Amino acid sequence: MKITLESTQNLKNISKKIVAVEDIDPPRDHLFRVEWNLGPRCNYDCSYCSPNIHNKKSEHLNMEVIEKTVDRIATYTKEHKKKTRISLTGGEPYLHPRFFDIIKMIKDSGIQRISVTSNASMPAKTYIKSLEYVNYLILSIHFEFAKLEKVKEKVLEIKSALTENRNLHLHIMAIPGKVNESLELAQLMKDEDVSFALRRVRPQFDENGLYLMPFNSGQSGGHGPKWSRIKDSNLHYYSEDELQRLGAFK
Ligand code: SF4
Fold first, then answer.
1. Tens digits of residue pLDDT in 38-64
2. 1 CA to centre of ligand 1 in angstroms
3. What topology does CATH give the domain 2-207?
4. Whole-model pTM?
């Protein structure tokens, strides 16, 4: 079962903000799973990511709400004798100024497993430090911002620090124009035995069915205001060659 909680600053609304309860089929590890979006605050502005999902200004979720929520989940799991996994997402969860207090609090509450999805923008030492509490670290690689060589270095450093019961997984977002880098990183992960998913990206469409090509979000390197270079929806997001190369990767 998965419960999705929407971030809220309003304590009274916690119960109303459980926005989804659903079965995950098939259950693989019998865990009670909680997917918790800590809020949309993000230091990236990926062209394919909706403004509803990310921004650079929203307030961080307050600690009182977080404490109450952790307590509620922990109480539920104890009462129902479940093992629980909390998956923290955002936005970028590591941007929360109390992120380390949050993951410690979750662990101290008796919740067995923590997974975090991050955009890989933090230093390797920050991720490694968090592995004291985080069981499963998922790094999404966004090439509008991430540099291949730095990502490689960082991932290998984190991998070398993994201990028993700590896992690393990469989501490689293979955007148009960065297919070579994506494939190179995927091959390295394969060679290094790090689990990964090579993902084709679906662009973000506006109300007219138009979309942005990567590097046109307005904050990824001075390309002008957001939506300034909307492409014709009849143009292909990926070239044929890129699609073929992505499809051929084994
Ligand atoms: S890093 Fe993730 S949340 Fe942030 S803009 Fe990119 S896709 Fe959206």
1. 999 999 989 888 888 899 999 999 999
2. 26
3. TIM Barrel (3.20.20)
4. 0.85
